[in-house]
Amino acid sequence: MPLLLRPATEADTARLGRIGRDAFRDTVSLVLFPPHLACKSPTGDPDVDEVQWRDDRSLQRMRDGNLTFVVVDAPDRGSEAGEIVGFSQWELPAPPNAAPAQANQVALPGSLDQEALQHLFTALDRESHRLLGPDGHSNMWYLMLLAIDPDQQRRGIGRMLAKHGIDLAAKVGKDVFLVATPEGKPLYQSLGFRQLGDSFDVLGTIYSAMLWSSEPRVTS
Ligand SMILES: CC(C)(COP(=O)(O)OP(=O)(O)OC[C@H]1O[C@@H](n2cnc3c(N)ncnc32)[C@H](O)[C@@H]1OP(=O)(O)O)[C@@H](O)C(=O)NCCC(=O)NCCS
Question: How confident is the model over 151-168, as pLDDT tens digits?
Fold first, then answer.
């Protein structure tokens, strides 16, 4: 079936949590929703908690002005209906005097390891400032999240979503920054991202900070 990329609507977020949960099931999710906290689940099922938490975060990020795109497996060419099979979320350079983002203020279920979550955010933020300087990635397009339904991977959906953001950033002369998982790194390399610094371990996942420059690099 044809794949169609479109901006997400708020109604779409009800599907995004499940895709995020499934895409990160064997990596980040294992650490954020560990078995020893399952007894603290408000719903009795940490899986349900994670999907809800991810839905809420996606919605909040959209309301904070972050761009979200989905790819839909459409029944026919030209149709916008169909199953959402992957999504990307982008943080854009904030306009001067913008209100602070609220995404960290969504409800946190008891089954979520808040210390691990904070550790992850702090580590990613620290690396961005260490590698890019005091302003971090605040003047760049930042790919916060790229997740494809595991049953739909290797169909070019991740490439479509990443490339779309790069093209939009390039149009306004902005660079693109991201922190890649080992699964994402080959895709970003093939799109022209270069790694900044050494890869680093956060809670068992090896991350690589990567930059795509809108200005062609001068080689001597
Ligand atoms: C990483 C991810 C986004 C890739 O999405 P995808 O739709 O499967 O990727 P595509 O089909 O667009 O593949 C793009 C390229 O990457 C390569 N690729 C994709 N997954 C790969 C993998 N696991 N290992 C090595 N290469 C891979 C493909 O060969 C393809 O190259 P090609 O176009 O030259 O053939 C997806 O696997 C995913 O959601 N993973 C779990 C969550 C995650 O880690 N997200 C990235 C966060 S930075």
Answer: 999 999 999 999 999 999
Q: How far apart are CA 129 and CA 135, in angstroms?
A: 7
Domain boundaries, the chain: 3-98+105-212
Give 153's contacts (C-beta < 8 A, 6+ positions apart).
Answer: none
- Output the CA 20–ligand 1 centroid distance in Å: 14
Q: Is 217 in the pocket of ligand 1 (CB under 6 A)?
A: no
The pLDDT tens digits of the residues spanning 69-100 come to 999 998 777 667 789 999 999 999 987 777 76
A 10 A CB-CB count for 181 gives 17
**How far away, in angstroms, is 143 Cα from ligand 1 center?**
15
The CATH code for residues 3-98+105-212 is 3.40.630.30
Residue 201's SS3 state is: strand
Give long-range contacts, CB 8 A cutoff, 24+ apart: 195-200.
196/131, 196/132, 197/127, 197/130, 197/131, 200/123, 200/127
Q: Which of 142, 173, 174 is nearest to 67 (CA)?
A: 142
How far is Cα of residue 184 from the mean position of the Cα atoms in its chain?
11
Nearest 5 degrees, angle CA 128-CA 134-CA 136? 30
